[in-house]
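Backbone shapes recur. Consider a single case.
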Amino acid sequence: SGAKRAPPGGQWGLVVGEGSNRSPESSEPQDFWATGPAGPTGRERRRTVELSVFPMRGWLLFATVAQLCLMGGGHPSLSLVGRTSGSAGLRRSPRQAGMQGAVPILRLRGGEDEESSSDSPLEEAVAGLRIGNSTQTNNVNVVFIGHVDSGKSTISGHILYETGGLDERTLDKYEREAKAIGRESWKYAWAMDTTDEERAKGKTQECGRATFKTPLRHYTILDAPGHKNFVPFMIGGASQAEIGVLVVSARQGEFEAGFERGGQTREHAVLAKTSGVGFLVVAVNKMDEVKWDKERFDEVVDKVSPFLKHTGFNLKTQVTFIPIEGLSGINLKDRLDKGVCDWYDGPSLLELLDSLQISFPDPDGELRMTVSDRYRDADLYVLGKIASGTMEKGQTVLALPSNTTMTINTIVVDEVEIDKAVAGDNVQLRIRSVDDEVVKTGSIICSPVERPCPVVYTFECKLNVLNCKNILSAGYQCLLHVHNSCVECTWVEVVSIFDKKLGEISGKRQPFVRPGQQAVIKVEVAEQLCVEKYKDLSALGRFIMREEALTVAIGVITDVTDLGLVDTLATS
């Protein structure tokens, strides 16, 4: 009724909210707007849900209305009760801000004479929808890593297709365009590889981002580049992820090239562990190339398992191996057919992801948001992940190290504006009247009324030296990667060294570090850097040191020397 056809260039999506039909002051029915407050608790005679329909990705309207009607009980009815203009009370992303036309408001009424209870089917259906409310389910970030050409982008794109994030029409377009250049098999990868250069070369260069949902969780896909020249982008993606999917190719020669010394399979596994990835799913891809041979699968497992154990992963609780075929989508969403593979009876990839017990960051902790990108479109838009705490629309926050206060005008998750975001969410903030230089990649957004994030030039750390051409000592310079920051650093002093054979050695006695040794080092960075002690907030306390496309050392920050910028500002 009034919403049978999508407008040009868009498809219908929705925002759902729930209200009571009875107000404290009046016995007349009261319908609450989708973003309004929850209705009063107690006895209710009728459920009312309003659907605000607006252009966004995903064909959700009719399926959701039908689901709510079926679950609501009684004799539900759907009616068009009004329209709103494009600016009044509508949740819009920046891309949708210029769209014209009125927006239908649909009202769904449930059955009569039902008691108010937290377990009513209609209430569960509404509460379970992530979009359009602030009490959302935790977002899980999944980074796809591995050697170049192992099939990461293809798997990511096929998951989007299987879960409804990539529609048939768009996929047909990608297929025609890929076929025109003789690369028909790249059609799924183009859902993640969006630039002309990435599509022309078939190599991911930046960390692609997309979202999808399963019945149990909401996921953000981070498609990391596999080429060694783009490892910094891979580190940025892995630092935001709770789960890593290490994609290895079962094809003869490809697995060996990625896993042998110099291949990115090894380095990506080490970097994922250092960046805080808690679970690793090893997806053995292209199993159709070896005719789903169990011996080949077992060979991959036998070679990769000892290395992952040495890296620090617990093989029993943190690592799972799974055979898949990304191009045809076998064992991604649905389980393997016995006619295809009779020796594997485990879960599919999405089932496995849903089963992992994730420890989410503390929503009640001090606010810390790491900035991964920003762009200007009239206002300043800031993208990043909330590492700790809670963020609300209209809140005044502090950007460091620029030491500037600003107000959050809107918070957007998956192109839907929300009022409140919690730790673990990937968000987009719209901020007005702020210069571009105030917030940059690697900045930290925190609360000005809580303890601010330390801003440092020097810190003390404990590290493991993995690879280096020579011994390392005071004066050594390299690149330091910590959360989304990448800065030059210099070793100031070797405090102490731990050797497996000799034990702990004073830095005065041996002022250099060899490969394979642990050390406590004082480090100086070339520009102001926002970090935390690892024991205070692990996401901001891990780091990686690299030189000439080689990972030299990994470690954690044990002590910081805060510059006290916020205290200085408050005093002045």
